[in-house]
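If you are new to this repository, start here. Below is one unmodified record pulled from the training split, so you can see the exact layout before writing a loader.
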Amino acid sequence: MKISKRNKKALSVCVSILLTVNICSTLSYSAADHDVNAEKSPSDMISGAISYIGTRVNEDKSIGDNRLVNDTAYAIAALRTAGGKDYEDSVKWLAGQADSENTDVSARIASALGSPDYLDKMQTKQNGDYGFGLYPGYSSDVIDSVLVLDAINETGYSGEAVSGSDLAAYLSQAVNDDGGFAYAEYNRSDPLLTAVAVYDIGVFFANHNFNMSPFAKSVTYVAENITDSYEDANIQKTICKHLALKAAGKENDLTEVVSGLRAAQKADGSFAGDITATYWAVKLLAGESSQPSQSTATTTSPTTTTPITSTTTTTSGSTTSSKTSVTVTTVTTPDISSTTTTYTGNKILLKWDDLSVEGADIRYQVFRRVNGSEWESYSAWDGKEKIDVLNVYPTEPYLAEWMTEPLEGEDTPAGKDLMSIASVNFSDFNSDPEKYMYDEDGSWKYDVVFFGAADCNSGYDLSEESYAVTRKFADTGRGVLLGHDTVCGSLQSSCYRPFFNQFADDLGLIVKFDELDNGMSDTATVVKKGLITEYPWMLRGELNVPEWHTSNQYCNKGTEWMIWNGERLTDEETGAKAAFYLATKNNFGIIQTGNSDGCTTDDEKKVLANTLFYLYQNTSNTSTADNAFFDTDAPANIHLLDASVSEGIMKLHVQAEDKPTVYEYYAKAKLGSNSIKTNVQKHEALSGMAGFAGIITDSDKSAMELIVSEEDGKTVKDMVEADEKGNADLTIALKDGTGPQFLHIFAVDKSGNISELTAPLSDGSEEKIKLGDVNFDGQVNAVDASMILAEYARISTEQTPEFSDKQFIAGDVDENGVIDAVDASKVLAYYAYASTGGELDDMRDWMALTARSDGNK
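And here is the target side for that same chain:
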């Protein structure tokens, strides 16, 4: 079976489809003549299990499924546990699969081979929280951390590169409230994973004389959530449960368990017809057998089996399998988790079940939607894979040059040395498209095809045959990028494209046949934040690109990423807009590169690179990363909880809630003419409230343009930080004058999204209230002072106040929100001032003068 480089680097998830393989045993173990009803000792049962493993050796000396290391690692671990020696060729195969960047693979190989060398190379992988992620830089997760702890147990490791004690500390913090462990933070606890984790923790603690009390709740979870069952689907959980309880120091008589295994062992010596389950059975039976073991430490290598498994039947010595459903699980990556209430990153990792079968090229697509919008196929590029691109060029093969030339000020070219680009002229491609698109074995050669780039595409359209082949290519989910003047509606005969235009609907475009044009532009403005604008190059604001224009193309249902910075032509019937530089829909994209015939800029190269990586949407891997997991929604529900005014200053107590951006994902595989979809996983990106800012204007129209950012371009200037509940206190100066006034409160989240609340303070229609003039006769005198004292007396004796709202404003001369004797005293003082020739007609001005005079004494 041909194993691709991509499959070799696939994540080590447990494959639930079992393969029918050629039996090629090279091991020196022979099966005893079994009577399945006879009483077998644990040693006899182990011998039968080892015999079964011998029948699963492949021609390349791997054991079981050789696309991943899991089966071979479990098989070798079982052989070592049973004291076997004659498996050097399989050891060599396993050692040859080592991937120093993949924690899962490294830990499994270390456990299987009992070699501490692999652990010595893992120092840079242990995170600050002492756990391990799948790759360096990935946030910690339980399964990878448990695998490393298992490797420590199996090898008896005592080096300094990896700390088992620190690993235990991480795992103690990763326990769910119910005591169980989950494959991803905030996911449900998984009984099998928890049993494996408790087993490895128990072995490590026993070897170091540690107390298991920090994991008492986890031990209880295992005991209460796994019911003994020896059916194929449950036997592994049962075995791991009893191993875990024994490792944790619980009194645990395994006599009944051994009896259950004895009855469950199949005629071929296996348990559940599965290498993983057989390994765990050997692990338990070895502890109940007098058979000596070569292992110097307890061994385990837990599976990453997903919650939904396959149904397996055995007929005439061959194993077949049917997959009823698959599941998506998530693993968080640096500084982000999928359901937390805080958000500081932009990336999550998706993993799904492997549906591959021998002899079939199974490919997967990932689909995503945001906030309940339409589902779209999404990039499956993991940031490390090389992608294969075909450039069908009209004049010169510019793309290969653009993607490999060094960028100014950068260490790498636009293509990041991760693109393999083949080029073919349009004429040659149209004459024999299958020659260029298919391998000799009938498989597709490329991940993405780019048609372009030249003005008018140098008159080229697809032929009927090349259109049909490209359509088949696109129907597999592979990417198609179209350059300038491919799909277009120009009246010029040289730009008429009947075959290219058949992709208009796939792109979400409306093609018109009129003579209108939006004109030329040498910039393109980024209008949407997403994977194309983030990865691998961050693209923001106005980009410098060669002169471009659209050709009667209107974006209707596609996603516009970059557009003309100015007024744009609109299709009257649909509202679709012209003058877009880059738009995509599912696995199709269109870019206006090519109008300037071979001229380009670094910005344009980056856009092209990002788009080609984005359009890689068909993979043989069983995982991918979404590098655009952003909180893009502004805060909601801004509340003005309290307000007061004093001496022209408004004090506000405000609150708001950040609004999450909801992402949903599923993966799809094609099996023959059928498609199988995983379940849907939903995740929320929520950054949390950052703070508030406020201003007062004379207009009720949005004042968002008045928001000023600090030099970093992200932080809002003069923003008041919100507390953990989304509350803050604002202080805003009122505007002078009698015109209308409107309060604008801006709520800002930690991703820089801003929402606005506008509230009227005054519409300017009321006359200005004269401070101190409570009877509104235009004078401030002793009568006003007497009325203020009377109101104060009513308030002080808990009688009903009589002042209207306007009288209260006029009588509260010191603007402290209270009517009292101080206000009356100030009115009398001002009356004395005015009666002796004082010229200030407004009490505010007089009080300001008095305050300055007092301050100078």
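Two things worth knowing about this chain: Residues 191-207 form the longest helix (17 residues). DSSP finds 24 helices and 28 strands in the chain.
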